[in-house]
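Page 37, continued from 36.
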């Protein structure tokens, strides 16, 4: 009996772009940013649907056997200082629904209380040099790409969260 290679596609979704990472046999194959400004679409929900389609098409997830598709689903915290907008969260839920993932992961599940900088350092520590070279840097949006890599590493058991408090 021949074993099929395990495939995992992880996405850090957003309203304007998504970080995406593809793993095969637990090895990062590529990680990049998928831009949501597709075709200057004036109607935002249509732009989200187009971005969701590009997320799926970009991975060749359609027609790839046994590819697990994991998406982070953010959580709004009552009284949070981040100034997050509940309307944005509802809109993001629509984007995620259009992607039709196999699994949802929440931020606290995969990264716990880690601050962003330390989280990204830990993600990079867990990659080989070859894997790290496959990450397409996206300027100010590189954090989205690294989060997608972290989500994938978590789902593959290569990233454990630990509670860390900033001083």
């Amino acid at each position: 009996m021949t074993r099929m290679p395990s495939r995992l596609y992880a996405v850090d979704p957003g309203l304007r772009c998504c970080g995406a990472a593809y793993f095969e046999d637990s090895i990062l194959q590529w990680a990049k940013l998928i831009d949501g400004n597709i075709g200057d679409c004036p109607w935002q929900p249509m732009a989200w649907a187009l971005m969701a389609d590009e997320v799926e098409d970009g991975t060749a997830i359609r027609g790839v056997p046994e590819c697990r598709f994991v998406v982070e689903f953010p959580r709004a915290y009552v009284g949070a200082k981040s100034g997050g907008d509940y309307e944005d969260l509802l809109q993001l839920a629509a984007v995620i629904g259009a992607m039709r993932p196999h699994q949802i992961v929440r931020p606290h599940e995969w990264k716990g209380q880690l601050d962003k900088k330390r989280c990204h350092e830990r993600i990079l520590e867990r990659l080989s040099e070859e894997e790290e070279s496959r990450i397409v840097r996206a300027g100010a949006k590189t954090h989205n790409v690294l989060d997608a890599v972290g989500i994938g590493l978590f789902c593959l058991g290569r990233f454990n969260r630990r509670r860390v408090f900033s001083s």
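The two ends are 53 Å apart (CA to CA). Flag for discussion at group meeting. The chain has six helices and five strands.
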